[in-house]
Design a protein that fits this description.
Strand order of the largest sheet: 3-9-8-7-4-5-6-10
Strand content: 5-15%
Helix content: 55-70%
Shape: elongated
Radius of gyration: 35 Å
Distance between the termini: 75 Å
Order of helices and strands: HHHEEHHEHEHEHEEEEHEHHHHH
Number of helices: 14
Length: 333
């Protein structure tokens, strides 16, 4: 429409809205809208007088008239960008001085905000691999929402991600949905009955672990020997872990359940309190009590003390150890 109207004005030398509408066979409203657009693009020029005639303007002139103000505005913005860059970079020495501790082997971060900022920085600098272990049976939705965008960004950069959970995490809907998205992009997730500590390791160079007595804080570790120890501990548990299924395979659920019961059997005779056992397994006290009742009934025991005695007498602990050793050798082979 605009092109035809422009050509019409060129051929006639000038015209008003009514004449152009008649010439093109369109309504006056359509012709008026087209004229307004071409005036805004400076391809038409309004002539003074009662008829509101318009005439055509050279496209080369229109380019200069339209783009020059924009270019001037961009130039002023770039000058402002350079001024701000210079002003902000003047503060860099102050920041580097204040961050001198960040190069130390150990750095305590008691505040959650500082922990999240450090994780974001390390994630941005990461080039090869991230290892993560998450204790407990679930992660809250806010934590998962914060993590998913960062983790997806890492995976899309081709960075390998491996995550360990405790077995009960399989039955937490939000955690399972997060894992499904993560594995869909190439992330690897396994679960274990082993006791885990919350840890994130970037490129096997820097590790963050929870501060004792402050789950909101973290200790940043850059000492290579300590980080290497954390990596080896992770690898040891990873080899024995089970894949986190995105569906509900009955055989896998049965295997996980038996693994948790085997671990519970070992802890049952170790003398630890129920609260300590539940924490190590990542389950609630109610779930622990239900599993304890099931195990004692299967053993034919009337009490936990008698159950411990029957476990020792049956050699069940030794059988479990032999099975774990065989599985480990098979994996290594």
């Amino acid at each position: 429409m605009d092109r035809e109207l422009y050509e019409c004005v060129l051929e006639s030398g000038h015209g008003d809205v009514a004449e152009l509408a008649t010439e093109l066979g369109i309504s006056c409203q359509e012709a008026e809208s087209s004229v307004h657009r071409l005036l805004a693009l400076r391809l038409l020029n309004a002539k003074p007088g009662p008829r509101n005639l318009v005439s055509a303007v050279s496209p080369s002139s229109a380019v200069a008239l339209v783009t020059t103000p924009i270019e001037n505005g961009l130039r002023r913005q770039m000058e402002e960008v350079e001024r701000l860059r210079h002003e902000l970079l003047e503060l860099l020495p102050l920041f580097e001085h204040g961050q001198a501790d960040s190069t130390q082997p150990l750095q305590a971060l008691p505040e959650l905000g500082d922990v999240l900022a450090t994780i974001e920085q390390l994630a941005a600098e990461c080039r090869e691999e991230v290892l993560t272990s998450q204790p407990g049976g679930r992660r809250n939705v806010e934590e998962l929402t914060e993590a998913i965008a960062r983790d997806e960004g890492l995976l899309r950069k081709g960075i390998r991600m491996r995550t360990l959970y405790q077995h009960p995490a399989r039955y937490h809907q939000a955690t399972a949905a997060y894992v499904e998205r993560l594995t869909g992009l190439g992330g690897e997730v396994r679960t274990t009955s082993a006791n885990l500590m919350r840890v994130i390791i970037f490129d096997r160079k820097v590790a963050l672990v929870s501060l004792v007595g402050n789950q909101q804080g973290a200790m940043v570790i850059r000492d290579r020997s300590v980080v290497d120890f954390a990596v080896q501990a992770f690898e040891h548990i990873w080899l024995k872990g089970d894949l986190f299924p995105t569906g509900h395979d009955p055989e896998q659920i049965q295997t996980v359940s038996e693994d948790m019961d085997h671990t519970l059997v070992r802890l049952l005779v170790s003398g630890e309190s129920d609260h300590a056992v539940a924490r190590r397994l990542g389950i609630s006290m109610r779930t622990l009590q239900r599993r304890l009742v099931k195990i004692t009934e299967e053993l034919g025991a009337n009490s936990r003390l008698q159950a411990g005695y029957l476990i020792h007498r049956s050699g069940l602990l030794e059988k479990n150890r032999d099975l774990e050793s065989a599985e480990t050798l098979a994996v290594r082979a």
